[in-house]
Write a structure and sequence with these properties.
With 224 residues, the protein is α/β, with parallel strands linked by helices. 48% of the residues lie in helices and 14% in strands. The protein binds zinc ion. The site of zinc ion (ZN) has 8 residues, from loops.
Length: 224
């Protein structure tokens, strides 16, 4: 993989509803580009485990049954992006979730190269079908990516259909997502580095679309 210099880093944000296959595509993109994939779930868990100041605040908030606020999330992401392996760029999954977080992210990447925003779009009825039939491992409980049909990737166990994701629950989750994300898409969509990805295609085709969007948006940003 090519060494990236400061200022020409590839900073990527992936947006997309649950069931869009965003996690899988973020993983593939990160691997191909030799960048860290930074998911907020992971770094939140890490911060809590490491017992950092922000991690302790986050834990107390979650133990009280509340959502971790913008300030704490922003602080935890900032600490992660300051680490050495993120110098050449990153693939962010799950952040930003709000316009306040997006504004903070713009400040963080200022002077560190462009920010490419990929919005994965899948029709609601396809998402509902995918999510309502999502499978988990009967042995270790691991989730399978929506398109995965084989045995558990972690332990080889048999996959079973998750029954708690009823269609009504799935519809509600998607509605919440759309409501929260609409302002974010509005915030980013006028930028030359914003791209919509059709997520309603076979995973390998989506991967190709992501790669060409990155190549294009990268070129676009060079002329800014
Ligand atoms: Zn398993």
């Amino acid at each position: 993989m090519a060494a990236q210099q400061a200022g020409s880093a590839l900073n990527v944000v992936m947006l997309g509803p649950p069931g869009a296959g965003k996690g899988t595509q973020a993983e593939r993109l990160a691997r191909r580009q030799g960048l860290p994939k930074i998911s907020t779930g992971d770094i939140l868990r890490e911060a809590v485990q490491a017992g950092t100041e922000l991690g302790c605040i986050a834990r107390a908030t979650m133990e009280a049954g509340n959502l971790v606020g913008d300030d704490v999330m922003i602080g935890i992401v900032q600490e992660r992006l300051d680490r050495e392996d993120a110098r050449g760029g990153f693939v962010l999954d799950g952040f930003p979730r709000t316009v306040v977080q997006a504004t903070a992210l713009d400040r963080m990447v200022d002077g560190r190269g462009s920010l490419v925003v990929l919005d994965m779009v899948v029709p609601e009825k396809v998402l509902v079908r995918r999510l309502a039939s999502r499978r988990i491992c009967g042995k270790c409980g691991a989730n399978a990516p929506v398109e995965w049909t084989g045995p558990c990737q972690k332990c080889g166990g048999r996959m079973v259909t998750r029954i708690d994701d009823g269609v009504a629950i799935v519809r509600e989750r998607l509605k919440v997502y759309q409501r929260q994300t609409k302002p974010l898409v509005d915030y980013y969509s006028a930028r030359p580095t914003f791209r919509t990805i059709d997520g309603n295609q076979p995973p390998d085709i989506v991967t190709d679309a992501v790669e060409s969007a990155i190549a294009e948006a990268g070129r676009g940003s060079a002329t800014l």
